[in-house]
Structure formats: structure tokens, C-alpha cells
Design goal:
The structure holds two protein chains of two kinds.
Chain A lengths: L16 E10 L2 E11 L4 E5 L6 H8 L7 E6 L13 H11 E4 L3 H4 L6 H11 L5 H14 L16 H13 L5 E5 L7 H18 L2 E5 L3 H7 L2 E6 L2 E7 H6 L4 H8 L3
Parallel strand pairs in A: 3-7, 3-8, 5-6, 6-7
Antiparallel strand pairs in A: 1-2, 1-4, 8-9
Helix pairs in contact in A: 4-5, 4-6, 5-6
Chain B lengths: L2 E14 L4 E14 L3 E5 L6 H9 L6 E8 L2 E4 L5 H10 L1 E4 L11 H11 L4 H14 L16 H13 L5 E5 L7 H16 L3 E5 L12 E4 L16
Parallel strand pairs in B: 3-8, 3-9, 6-7, 7-8
Antiparallel strand pairs in B: 1-2, 1-4, 4-5
Classes of the chains: A alpha/beta, B alpha/beta.
């Protein structure tokens, strides 16, 4: 038993992201049961849990590509009002393209593999209404550079690139429009350790330089620990524990979290 | 003197679900601390000294009691404060100094040391200039400043860590054996910096393997051996 925590008193800003009681079932499987989360501007929330815990489903709900059965989701942005789950699909698509960036574990989900890398990034800018070729190219170059992508390869299609490079193209696409929220779904899973460190470092730099609010999902505790301010632990579609990253890893309360932390190499 | 910290009946134990037991680290710890004072925590291995520091910093969750921190925003109970508030205070008013450096891949020593100043709003040039001067003070060779500390020796890593932890003055500083395994020059620099911060009003709570190193700085002592459950043998409670 530990003391219960109070709502923030010192931090005056409102949470950027607020998700309340999100539920989702696939047939008889409850993927999400009353999952709630809030993230403050500039904060990084890490979500850990084993495969099938519902963490990726939750992230897809936050990216509005999956519609939950119940729950609400709001973003505290000037022109974004109401429960985002109630938006029609056109409004959802525009919102996702302009305000939310996502990096998938599988680059095939986020990129057109046979189009040029710069074209993949420019596609985002086109959705936002930019039509001038020189501007498109310049902004795509800037985003790729910020993701530490080698610019002499910017016209190569992702299919010709290594896994780490493909993730950088995804990241460039995600940040091209300076999104309010960046979602990362297992961004380094499947990459070898040195490439993983480079991608993590790029993310950390972006976070520090631009103060982007992020939600990152991973089963890799090291990744979550490196990047997150706060951590949420999920199991069987429920949140079993949340807290400051160092507290969850050093003083886990729930039996499942203890098991998870002790299982780390 | 301004009050910085009031700890009341603080209790901490650990529940180990896989063994189905719990272990008490300390019960009913109370003390107060003013700005510019240093409190030395005493007790044998496993008496709960580091556990108390980590509970104050909120790396561990308290089970009972209160940690009233007199921040610049007003008094707040760290034992029950929201995560966001704790994050804010850690960034600006509370520091934790350990002997271990958490190096990040591809981040140079000087960038690592300058980071707290950059977060506090200094320009890159100012932050780097100060970082370099502190690295110099703690005796890190100039050729190592732009290098990545991941490959440094243990002692050098610790110097980088101290420079980083002490570069920005805090209202409250928690010191977990910062002098362990330091060479003489770095130890002298550390003690000088602690004295300077103390004179500027920083309240400090420290665990020192050799308290003699800082004897001149100690104002109060707290022996944690007496706060344990008498039924139990002292045990190492670090997780």
C-alpha cells in the first residue's frame, strides 16, 4: 500500500492529450478496458506491456485509425474541439495528417516503399496544402536532416534503404509539419543495437530541441527508460500501474510490473 | 534561516510479490532541515540511508507520512505530489547526486554537463562555457570534453556526473555517496563546491562512506539504525 497521488498543483498548463475510459473489443476479446491517459505538453509517456496487452491498439486509437467502442479523446489545441472519436473520417484524416505524427514498427505501414524518400515526406506537406515544388523539397530536406538522414540519399526509395534509414524517413515524415503529438509504435524493434542507439539518440535530440509531446509504445524497457518521463504499464487491456519512469523501474508496485522489471537483462 | 524540508513520520517498505513478503526499510522518520544546512544520514549497510534519499526524491513511493518541501512555488508534499509537479521540481529545485553516471549514446561529456543549464534556459554558448569550466575544476582532461563518456573510466565518469549534478544551484540537494572512489583533486573540488552551494543556501542531505571527508560541512546527523522494525535483521533493501 502506498499513498495516493494528488492532481498537479504547481504545473499550471493543461494536459495536451486526454483520453478517458477508452474501451475496444474484437469479438469476445477485450483489447482495451477503460484505459485513460493524459500527457502534458513536452512530456514523453512510455507505454510498456507484453504482446497482446493492448498497448498498440491504444496507440492506434490515439492516431484515430482505430475507433474504440467507448471513451473520449481530446487534444488541447486552439482549433481542435470536442471528442475526437466523434469526428467524421475526413476531419480525422486531416487532423492526423497535420497535427499528429506516427512512426510504425513496420515501415511498410507508414511509407510508400517504391516512391522516393523525399517524396514520402513531401506527401505530408501536400496534404496540408503546400503546392510549390521548391518549398516542398526544401521542407522535406529540412525534416530529413532533422531526423539525421543522409541527404545524398534523399531521393532513394525506402525499399533500397536499411531498416534504420527507413525509420528515419518515417520520423522525417512524422515531424515534417511540426506535429503537436508524436506517436511511436516500437520505433526501434528489429533494429540492431547500434542502429537502435542512433535512432533513440535522434528521438531524444528532437524531444529536447523541439519539446515535442510524445507517446511511445515498446516492449523494450531500455527504450522506454531512455526516452520517457512517465511510464504506464498495461496488461490484458488494462493499465496496472503508472508513475514517474525512475519510480516505476526502481520501485514497481504491481506484481506484474515487478515481474517485468526483474525479467530485464 | 528558511525552512526547506519537513519530514513527518515517513515510512517506507517494499512488497515483494514473487516472495509474497514485505520488508520494512524505515518507519516513522521525522526531521526538519533549513537552507544552508547539511544533514548526514548514518547507519549500517541496509539501514535505509539510500532508500530514504530515493524516497525523498520520489524514485520510491512512500507508504506513509509526509515530505513537506518548501519550494519557490509554496509548500508541497512530495510523498503525494503529482508526477508532473515532481518532474518540475526535479528540473528546477531538487538535485540528486549519485556516484553513477547515466551516459547516453552519442552525447559528449560537455553536452551532458551543460544540459541542466540548457533546460534552465541558458544559451548553448553560455551553458557550454560553464560546463567546460566545471569539467576543468573536477579534473577531467580537456581532450575528453568532446568525447562520449560511455567509454570513460569509472572515476572520470563520476567526475562528469558530479559536474552535471552540481552545475545548477538547487534548493535541495540529495547526495548518495558522491565522494566514493574519487581522486584527491576531484574530492577537494567537490567539497569546495558543496561548501559554496551551502553558503548560497542549498539544503543538503547526504550519505557518505567516509563522513570525515565532509566533516567541516556537517550540521546535523540522523541515525537510521534506530528507525527499523526491531523484530527484523537489517537487510539490504536496494532493489
Amino acid at each position: 500500500m502506498t499513498l495516493t497521488l494528488e492532481p498537479p498543483q504547481l504545473v499550471q498548463t493543461r494536459p495536451l492529450l486526454k483520453a478517458l475510459d477508452v474501451c475496444k473489443s474484437y469479438g469476445s476479446v477485450h483489447a482495451l478496458r477503460n484505459v485513460s491517459a493524459q500527457v502534458y505538453p513536452g512530456e514523453v509517456l512510455g507505454i510498456v506491456g507484453e504482446s497482446g496487452s493492448g498497448k498498440s491498439t491504444f496507440l492506434r486509437c490515439l492516431n484515430l485509425e482505430e475507433m474504440p467502442d467507448a471513451g473520449s479523446y481530446t487534444l488541447d489545441l486552439p482549433d481542435v474541439l470536442g471528442n475526437l472519436f466523434d469526428l467524421d473520417r475526413y476531419a480525422r484524416r486531416l487532423l492526423c495528417a497535420t497535427r499528429i505524427g506516427i512512426v510504425y514498427q513496420n515501415p511498410h505501414l507508414g511509407l510508400l516503399m517504391r516512391h522516393s524518400s523525399s517524396g514520402n515526406v513531401a506527401e505530408r506537406l501536400l496534404v496540408a496544402g503546400e503546392r510549390r515544388f521548391a518549398v516542398l523539397r526544401e521542407k522535406a530536406r529540412g525534416a530529413l536532416d532533422a531526423s539525421e538522414f543522409p541527404l545524398d540519399r534523399m531521393d532513394a526509395p525506402p525499399i533500397e534503404l536499411s531498416g534504420g534509414m527507413q525509420q528515419r524517413v518515417q520520423l522525417a515524415k512524422a515531424i515534417a509539419l511540426e506535429p503537436a503529438l508524436l506517436l511511436l509504435d516500437e520505433p526501434t524493434t528489429g533494429l540492431d543495437v547500434s542502429v537502435q542507439a542512433l535512432v533513440l539518440d535522434t528521438l531524444k535530440r528532437l524531444q529536447q530541441d523541439r519539446q515535442i509531446t510524445m507517446v511511445i509504445v515498446s516492449h523494450d524497457l531500455g527504450v522506454i527508460r531512455t526516452l520517457s518521463d512517465r511510464v504506464m504499464v498495461m496488461r490484458h487491456g488494462e493499465v496496472v500501474e503508472q508513475g514517474l519512469a525512475d519510480q516505476v523501474f526502481q520501485d514497481p508496485q504491481h506484481a506484474y510490473t515487478q515481474q517485468l522489471v526483474h525479467a530485464k537483462l | 534561516m528558511t525552512r526547506v524540508l519537513e519530514v513527518r513520520a515517513l515510512t517506507k517498505g517494499f512488497t515483494m510479490h514473487h516472495l509474497d513478503t514485505s520488508m520494512q526499510a524505515f518507519t516513522d522518520v521525522s526531521f526538519t532541515l533549513d537552507g544552508g544546512k547539511l544533514l548526514l544520514l548514518k547507519g549500517s549497510n541496509g539501514a535505509g540511508k539510500s532508500t530514504l534519499l530515493r524516497t525523498l526524491y520520489r524514485s520510491y513511493l512512500a507508504q506513509g507520512g509526509a515530505i513537506l518541501f518548501h519550494s519557490s512555488h509554496g509548500v508541497i508534499d512530495l510523498a503525494g505530489a503529482a508526477d508532473e509537479d515532481v518532474t518540475l521540481l526535479r528540473r528546477t529545485e531538487m538535485g540528486f547526486v549519485t556516484q553513477f553516471l547515466i551516459a547516453r549514446p552519442r552525447v559528449s561529456a560537455e553536452d551532458l554537463v551543460a544540459e541542466p543549464l540548457r533546460v534552465a534556459g541558458y544559451t548553448v554558448e553560455d551553458a557550454l562555457a560553464q560546463a567546460r569550466s566545471w569539467l576543468d575544476t573536477f579534473g577531467v582532461k580537456q581532450s575528453l570534453w568532446p568525447a562520449y563518456p560511455t567509454t570513460f573510466s569509472g572515476g572520470e565518469q563520476q567526475k562528469v556526473n558530479l559536474a552535471r549534478a552540481l552545475i545548477q544551484p538547487r534548493r535541495l540537494l540529495l547526495l548518495d555517496e558522491p565522494t566514493a572512489s574519487l581522486d584527491i583533486q576531484a574530492r577537494a573540488a567537490l567539497i569546495e563546491r558543496l561548501a559554496e552551494l551551502k553558503a548560497r543556501g542549498t539544503a543538503m542531505i547526504g550519505v557518505f562512506h567516509h563522513p570525515g571527508d565532509v566533516a567541516a560541512l556537517i550540521d546535523h546527523e540522523l541515525d537510521l539504525s534506530q528507525t527499523q522494525d526491531p523484530q527484523k535483521e537489517p537487510q539490504d533493501v536496494a532493489v
